[in-house]
Amino acid sequence: xxxxxxxxxxxxxxxxxxxxxxxxxxxxxxxxxxxxxxxxxxxxxxxxxxxxxxxxxxxxxxxxxxxxxxxxxxxxxxxxxxxxxxxxxxxxxxxxxxxxxxxxxxxxxxxxxxxxxxxxxxxxxxxxxxxxxxxxxxxxxxxxxxxxxxxxxxxxxxxxxxxxxxxxxxxxxxxxxxxxxxxxxxxxxxxxxxxxxxxxxxxxxxxxxxxxxxxxxxxxxxxxxxxxxxxxxxxxxxxxxxxxxxxxxxxxxxxxxxxxxxxxxxxxxxxxxxxxxxxxxxxxxxxxxxxxxxxxxxxxxxxxxxxxxxxxxxxxxxxxxxxxxxxxxxxxxxxxxxxxxxxxxxxxxxxxxxxxxxxxxx
Length: 362
Hints:
The protein is an alpha+beta fold. Helix content is 54%, strand content 14%. It has helices spanning 3-13, 21-36, 38-43, 45-57, 67-71, 74-121, 127-152, 158-174, 176-191, 231-235, 262-274, 311-328, and strands at 199-202, 205-212, 216-220, 226-230, 239-241, 248-256, 286-292, 297-305.
């Protein structure tokens, strides 16, 4: 047996592949075309099937080639490029229209930002509020423009809006306190009950406002402690702005004993207040009786001060002067006391026992 005859028998005895090599190449190209250009492949399904069938039938007569040689054929890539180019040409008008829509909204966002800065700036609103409102308007317009551009490009906007709505609801529920502080911050920036540097009293907290942010307000106390207060608490409590006052009167409460001379106490207190450097000399100092209490006759020293910004130092000085003046005049400032009246008959006097405490030395 010759070598050629043996080679033919081994070749004839080798089982055939379910799909010969040319058929597999054709199927691979068809799959790639389906992924990159599904419309073009769908338009010619019979051609792809015919190509695969012809490759399968002609397999015994055609010499086998490597798969790489089939994929590198120029005709394959030319066909792919033509179909991609056709896709691009089909989508080009939509993409161009979407780009034009977004560009228009981009221009509108800039116009709206400048308009808000001009209009709101005329209302003497704080610069922080003007900046926040202008940015909010711009981003809102840009988001609307993006949604319309996506819709113009042919994509479904409904599922996107639904997802954004669900996400926004979840974030809103999780950050409810933070959102309330944000709204309160916008209210403070709009109403402007105080400004930076103002001396305020916020729910029994006295100090100077050092910072106003969208979420918190910072107050520095006279002891230089920085208190960061959430804006929600600021707007729900009483705010006393001491810096908005052009003139200020201090009312200092005092008390004297029932056995003291009221006129003498009034004279002494007036002289003490008039000697203070904080007292306004153009306005009279007054002392009025406000109450007959259980243990004292309550008075009120009313003094107008020169500088409202020095309310606390002036109050400390006047209170100290009043105490020294009353002590110097021998006028008693009583402490809480009660007078007890015990009744008993002359025949049976009230028994009293005096108990003396013994001292123990350690």
